Amino acid sequence: MSQREFESTLHTDLANRMTYGGYLHLEKILTAQEPLSKPAHHDEMLFIIQHQTSELWLKLMIHELRAAIAAVQADDLEPSFKILARVKHILTQLLNQWSVLATLTPTEYAQFRGVLGNASGFQSFQYRLVEFLLGNKDRRMLKVHEHDAANHAVLKEALESPSIYDAFLAYMKGQGLPVPDAAVNRDYAEPREMDEGVIAVLKTVYENPHDHWAAYEMAEKLVDVDDQFGQWRYRHLRTVHRIIGMKRGTGGSSGVPFLRQMIDHQFFPELWEVRTRIEELPAPNAST
Q: Which residues of the chain have a pLDDT value below 50?
């Protein structure tokens, strides 16, 4: 088989020039995998890279969600449509990664699990920040990060600030839709309760999409993210069950039962409930 042509314009003298590795700081990224098992267990590398890459995707998701919230608060929904579509695809990447970790057998994991000590994904600062940005607020989670003043401050700010759903409800109210005052003028650090007034507004949006197209499109983009997030959680649960069974988590949780509590969680409950409330059009009269 003949080799492809080596084009004369390719840059080969890279001394003192920006390179691929230099731009991406690969010297830092590719030396950040340090197995603690002695001797290093072959599969600990998989475990480390799985979680490090997840954190990189979470970093991108935070970057995107903050931009989406800013766009909605500026009454400009259209930029957020592409952003939320991207967030959905990031979640797809995170979801698919579980299939790689699922190749780790219980026997293999048991041979290096002890080196984790109390380390657990539950302690992920970035995961908690994503939850807060999407609206799953829980002040108790701040305690896990008290040891890190900088991260604690970022989380506290996100806890007390509007989530993307809060911003969306405020947008709809600003557009003249009758969103209840209590749904937008509230303590953002507290979890939201299902609001019948919000359901009624969303019902109007869904039954009259041409009159409220931007809100209609935004609602569906939010459901996309919520749906994909739920699938990610479920795959996490199944992977953990497959690898450690019903053992307790390294962070002190009950393990599978702890993860199962969040399987049915919805970031945007009214967007799910409104589907039940949408009235169906009457069937056309049968021709005679």
A: 288
pLDDT digits 0-9 by tens, 187-202: 999 999 999 999 999 9
Length of the chain (residues): 288
- The Cβ of residue 101 has, within 10 Å, a number of other Cβ atoms equal to 21
Asked if residue 265 lies in contact with residue 231, where contact means CB atoms within 8 angstroms, the answer is no
Phi-psi map region of 253: left, alpha, beta (phi>0 left; psi -120 to 50 alpha) = beta
Q: How far is CA 194 from CA 131, 149, 266, in A?
A: 18, 33, 11
Q: How far is CA 56 from CA 127, 129, 213, in A?
A: 11, 13, 34
Report pLDDT digits (tens) over 158-169: 999 999 999 999
